[in-house]
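Researcher: Next sequence.
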Amino acid sequence: MKHKKLLGTLYTAFDKSSPQGIIQKGKPKRKLESEISTSRLALDRLSYDDPQQWHSLFHLGQLLYVRFEQLRVHRDLDEAISLHLSALHFRPLGHVDRFNSLYRLSIYTQTRYQLNNLVEDLEAAIDYGTEAEELARAINHPYLTWAHYCIAGVKLHDNTIPSSCETTAPSNTTAEIRFASARLLADAGRKRGHTSALRAYKLALVLVERCLTTRFTISRQRSFLISDDVRTLSSTAASCAIEIGDLASAVEVLEQGRGLVWSQVRDNRYPLENLPDVAPELTEAFRETLVQLELLSMSSDDVRVSSEEKAAYKSHLLERWNDTLQKIRELPGFQDFLRPRPLNSLRMAAAEGPVIITNLDTLRSDAIIMQSTGPLSLVPLSTDLPRLLSGLSKIMDRISEQGRADRPWQYPGGPAQTLTSILQSLWRYVCSPVVEKLLAMGIPEGSRIWWCPTKNLSSMPLHAAGPYTDTGKNLPDIFLSSYAPTLASLIRARVSLADGTMIRGVRLLAVGQSQGLSQVKVELEHLKELFAARAMIRDGYDASPTTILDDILIREHSFIHFACHGYVNGTLPFESYFVLHKDKLFLRQIMEAYVPHAELAFLASCYSAVGDSEQSPDEPISLTAAMQVAGYRCVVGTLWTMFDEDGPRLSKDFYGYLLRGGIENVDFRESAMALHLAVRGMRERGIPVERWSTFVHIGI
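Model: Next structure:
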């Protein structure tokens, strides 16, 4: 039975999961018949000692097996087996092509055993499969990784498992295939309750990062990250860790998997920031070795290089890669280069207040409260939360399309579908349990808290959640909420602040679109009054991408204020942009600019803080996130369409609070309180919830 199970797993993994599918099962019948006829004719014309004999026999055998699967004619299966047996005569022991024939024979004879129940077919299938694996090990065949997974799937039943070196060995195949194998192994282990599952998930996350290092454009990185197996990896791994009570690992894998696109640009800045400045030769050597390893792994089997030479070259590259990595990690500040951050390092994010990290998974949903010291606190959430959020997201998408009507959030479907009902649902299913836990932990009311949400929660107004009854307190009445796309973004802001880069005597750059927005001119006038000579106003024709970027980088404006439309491109997120008078300032342009003196960005533009959460790994790619990548430690943004008339008063109240002690004493770290008080003023003036709850604070 165990051998049958092994063969079945081999069949599933190789035939459905590996990239070896030379002939498609869904080939049209007429085309298939034509190819079979052509292949027979070509084979008949070959002499016995022709070098093409193996290829012709192998190809015709595959075609006949495809026809067998379509029509279930047994003689096609018998002939396919006979052809592959004949093909073996043309490939001696140890030849790389012999593996392909052995692999097919193991599957075809197993299929015939299932039809006829002849023991000799089962024994033949086992023999062919065993020889195929032995040959794969001997020649380090690219599909050996898949075989390791298949065997592991069977061995999990008797509590044994291949080593992590076998599962993810970097010398036998590409990083993508090793990742897929590790993910399959992890899922299989979790399903069976095996203790190796979490380790396999962690290995898969490491391999995701390896895959990203060979994708040198952010668009290519993101296209890889939005695939289902990658996009759900960190949440599934965290859920697995929580199940076994390992909250530290849950926090670590969530951070490791969240915002992987940004981590390539921001957290490590590999290969874009500090490393080339510190050690350019090491940077170039590291990149070159990675590329050569990947190219070698993807090279075809018919390259005119012996297996011994290929293995020696791979060994040389791996040795050089490890040596270069070790040298990089010996540099000051690079000791954790390409390493996951441990919990002790991540706790810096909670230096000024608790951070609430959410996780949504198909099997369970949770919130983890992290403080700078002490144990992590788990808050189990409803298992229905992913389904509920999916519905809420669709409602918010529909009502946001109503634009700038007098009450754009009063969805016509009734009270249950208004924004208030959404805020009540968020309170009931997420925020209320968290608030109860925070108060029980002794966190006093009025304290700052940081939300680090994932998936659909990233675009939800958690900061405004509440029961919205006459007697109950809403979240803004209890705690002062900020958001953090990643823990690393908070740590980065705090570390740069500790380095003494805070600027005394702020300079403000204000960018407007007064020709298209009626209240922008009033808003810009308020800013000019508040900041006087310390304000640079760019409006109309003065607001061009080149001018704005020069003002930021050259003139060292530490504050920037956008009063214009913003557009988030869900399909090509890095083509999202701010709308200027006659041009656009794209997200990629902001992201490419690293601004060491940046402190505060106020984005009074629609949808600046919301990104493509449905198709992002775990961090929405948004305009606010781009500003953080550019170096801004605090960002104010909007989750949906803001009301034009709210801009002038809100910005006046916001900056008025920051400037209350004089322009030389402005502290951007008070921006969260400044926004909180400005929004509270809107609430006290009776401004509807859909207008004030759109504003969010991100950062320290």
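Model: The two ends are 59 Å apart (CA to CA). The mean pLDDT is 78.
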